[in-house]
Amino acid sequence: MGAEGILDAINRHSSIRSYKKDPVPEDMLKRILHAASRASSSGNMQAYSIIVTSDEKIKEDLFDSHFRQSMVLEAPLLLTFCADFHRMRRWLKLREAPDNFDNFMSFMIASIDAILASQNAALAAEAEGLGICYMGTTLASCDDIAKILNCPEGVVPVVGFSMGYPDEKPEMRDRLPIEHLVHRERYEKRTDQQILEAYQDREVEGWKRYLANPQLKRRIEDSGVENLAQVYTKLKYTRESHEIYSDTIRRCLKRQGIQI
Questions:
Q1: Structural domains in the chain?
Q2: What integer best gives the mean pLDDT of the chain?
Q3: Which residue among 78, 132, 240, 242 is the one 20 to 30 A from 120 at the CA level?
Q4: CA 154 to CA 209: how far, in whole Å?
Q5: Cα 37 versus chain centre, distance
Q6: pTM recorded for the entire structure
């Protein structure tokens, strides 16, 4: 694929939550996984693992951990990208080398490796005509997912997505204007007015999208939420939920032998 094809795949991205039953061909899956393996990696350690799940029983086991999102059951494949120093730490032991990778910095390095690999896989999948939907529930439920997927010590699920042939064509979601995302030379702190300008289109389109969903509209009306910013922090990403997920991640790291 040339530069134009890659840019086209990037620019037409939208999250797919409804899938056809058609299986993903094995040779296509191998190309996608190979693309993931070519991602940049700290020290070329490739401190990640990819768990490919197609078994219906395992997907049912994961359903609650992924907050009962329908694509968990509908998509032919789930890909879970794990921060993984388990493999390398075993190699170090076998080669009588010091083990320096049981700490929080190592977890962050491995997480970045896993995320970079996941985005390579996502772009490759979309270039092949497949659809994907990233699931933040992978990190939010990392402790339970690690148990379901038999992750050994040193392995923590950090990001994942559903994957398959799309059975929908959702409208592309808006993005913040590029001038509000990019800074030249140093970070330029924006004025209050500039912040409001950055989000002005999002506030209109996002609010319209939430009100178009009958269930979300009911929740908004029942809660007294008045704008999109309040939807984010009073309904979707509350302080209470983030504190719970933070505890989940800390518990998972401790159980997986990572010092925090």
A1: 3-171 (3.40.109.10), 178-241 (no CATH)
A2: 96
A3: 242
A4: 40
A5: 17
A6: 0.95
